[in-house]
Structure formats: C-alpha cells, structure tokens
Amino acid sequence: MAKMWAGVTAGDTDPAADDFNSSIRFDQRMFRQDITGSIAHAEMLAAKGILSQSDCEALTDGLAGILEDLESGKLKIDGSAEDIHMFVEQVLTERIGDTGKKLHTARSRNDQVALDLRMYLRDESDEIAALIRGILKVLADLAEQHTETIMPGYTHLQRAQPVSFGHYMMAYAMMLLRDLDRLRDCRRRMNISPIGCCALAGTTYDTDRRMEAERLGFDGICLNSMDGVSDRDFAAELLSTLSILMMHLSRLSEELILWASWEFRFISFSNAYTTGSSIMPQKRNADMAELIRGKTGRVYGDLIGLLTTLKGLPLAYNKDMQEDKEGVFDACDTVKMCLGILTPMLATMTVNKENMLHAAQSGFINATDLADWLVKKGMPFRSAYKISGQLVRLCIENGTVLEALPLETYRQYSEFFDEELYQAIDLKTCMEKRISEGGTSVASVEKQIAFVRKELET
Q1: CB count in 10 Å sphere of residue 379
Q2: pTM
Q3: CATH of the structural domain 110-358, one choice from 1.10.1040.10, 1.25.40.10, 1.20.200.10, 3.40.50.970
Q4: 34, 90, 422, 439: most buried by Cβ count inside 10 Å?
C-alpha cells in the first residue's frame, strides 16, 4: 500500500522498517471508532463551510460503506497498511476518488489516533462496567441465600470470629462497587475530545471542535492542543483501575482456591469450571480461579509498561506513543475474560454449609464472646481474657470445644459462670450479636445487600 505521507521523501522504506513501524496488526480493532470519528469530522468541516455539502455527503457515504463492508467481512483489512487510519483513508480515496483526500483537512494522525483510542477505551470501559455489575448481582444473590450460613472469619489465616458466608460475599461486593466507581470516574476524565488539536499547535482553519466533540458523545474538549495529542494518562488511569480490579478478583480467587481444597471443603465448583489431572484421577483442579490469580500479574505488567513508556517523553507527540495500545488492549481483554468466567463460576458453585459450620465450631472462634460475657458479669477484661485462653487450652488438650464443656468445669475457673454462658457462646448468637452497622448479623448483612442492589439500579 502506498504511503499517504510520501512527499518530502519518496516513502520508499525498507520492508523490515515498514513492519517495525506498522501498527495495523493491533490498532485495526479501532476501525469503528476511526470511521465514526471521520464521519463527524467531515460533517463539522461542511458545517463550517470548509467542505462543500456534496463533498461531505460523498465522504460520509463512502465511510459508511467501508464500515458496513468491514463489519460484514466483505472488505478485509490490508495487513501491509501502516495503520488503521491510513487504511481507511486509502480505501476511501480508491472508492470515491480525490474527494477522499479532503477528509484529512484540519486534522493530523496525532489527534486522530488520540481520538480513536479515547473512543475505543470508552466503549471498553462500558463493557467492563456491565460485567462488574453482573458479578455484583451474583454476589448479592449468594449473600441473600447465606445470611445465616455460619463460617469462620480469619485474620492471619487463623480462625478468628464467626461470620456468615453472606457477610463474606458482601466484603467482595463492596470492593467491586469501588472498582465500578473508579471506572466511572476514569471514564469521565477519558471522555474529553482531542480532535482538532492537529499535530500539536491547532489549525489555521476556522473549525468547531466543540460541535465535533458533541457529535461523538464527548463531554468537552482538550483545552491545550499539545496536551491533547501527547497525553495518555487516561490510558494509564484505566490500567491502574483495572489493576486494582484484578487485585480484588485475585484475592477472591485465592479464597475460592483454598475453600475448594480438601483441607477446607467449604465450596465445590461445577465440573464446568474445573479440570482434571493427566496422572491423578481423583483431582478436580480450580484452574479457572488459578488463571485469574495468574493473569493479575499480566495486567500489572501492562500498567508498568505504559508508565515506563511515558515517563521520559518530551512534548508533544512521539512515536513511542504507539506503544500505548497493545498493553491497554491486552488488559481490557484480560479483565473481560476473567469477569466472564468468574461470574458463572460463582453462580454455579455449591456452598457446603455443614463443613463451614464444623470449621467454625472447632476453631474456638467464640472465645472472644466468652471473655465479653465475663466482662459483662463484672470481671476486668484482662482477667476474662486469661480465663478464656485457659479454657481454650483445656479444650485443645481434651479434644473438645467450649460449647461442650460442663458447667462444673467452667466454675472451677470462675464463679461468674452460670447456665446463661451457653447461650452467649452459641455461634449463631455470637454472629447475631454483631449488630453494629457493617457487621455480620443477619439484619446488617441484609442492609448491605440492599445497598448493593440499590447501587446496581443507579
């Protein structure tokens, strides 16, 4: 394909240099945004009298035809083209003649590529937001089903206090709500149009940048033309947001991997989301969750790669900025893939209530409640803490639990003990007593679920 920029040079570059310079293999995915942006640009030029109405109609009809043919597969993208922008312009010129050469009036590839990338990532952000909303709905449904399912809560991976499985699911829902909010906020800053900044200094033509931005669904325009063509912090911010999202998905995946192990047996995955071993017939591996955990590092790498590319660039546009796309495209693809697998995996997993309850009962996670009960009877907390610890040690030595110790044994440690203590240290009671806002009681978790569902309706 001929070089559209041939002029002062003949455009005769070495084939290896052409291949090294080309971005068509990855930026071709922006063909819809490129054509949509070009249609709006032609309409703006006509509205300002820079193009005739007949030229505008020829350009917009030609561009619409190219878009239709690309989407239907009738037209194939030429892999020898330098980039998607040059490919579209070349095909347009072949189809409608010299009028096609007028399309690039009052713009540069510098602001064109910045426009396409913002529009593309805006669409990706909306897709990712919809997927986050999908997993939030599943978490809310799970929480609603398990407001009374008792399990151990952990600190330092040691059994700590009783919580409900519903409460546990709501913890991840709150994380993902913040991810959704970060994504919305990132999209707001992304949704500013660079078109009309041209190469770096603007244009001598009397254009209407705001009209063009409005037609493309932007909230405003970049107010400095050098910043408009050389800024990629919207891409870096999206990568940062996606990295935090993946961190949350990885943490949840780690929990699921542990819970699905034979040592925990808190959950079991549908066969649709596990794999087997080539040598050990008993194995059901949580490979999907492990891959989500592993792919988190990939998204982190995409973020660091872009930050490193940008850190030493002088104003305004530099060819280094071609490296902005592959990483952010990869991150978007990876996040969508992970959300698309994790959501049905959660929706179809089995929650083993009895195993959760047994782990809670055998973990002495009501020891704090025992101490609190003694304090309410009038004992100083440090004394109550010591006695509770001594009783836990006694249980461990005798292979029993606090609920099974006879009252006579309790009274050997303190005369404060009476029959009421058994109700106080019952795991359901322990859970229900956490009535503070955000706690694990049924009423509190129900409020959390209601909050999440209301946010999803917003």
Answers
A1: 17
A2: 0.92
A3: 1.20.200.10
A4: 34
What does the domain layout of the chain look like in residue ranges? 15-105, 110-358, 361-457
Active-site residue flag, 277: yes
Distances (CA, A) of 182 to 107, 124, 412: 32, 14, 56
Among 277, 278, 383, 436, the one annotated catalytic: 277
Q: Is 156 a catalytic residue?
A: yes
Residue pLDDT, tens place only, 365-390: 899 999 999 999 999 999 999 999 99
CATH superfamily of 15-105: Fumarase/aspartase (N-terminal domain) (1.10.275.10)
Q: Which residues partner with 350 through β-bridges?
A: 268
Give the tens place of pLDDT for each residue, 36-74.
999 999 999 999 999 999 999 999 999 999 999 999 999
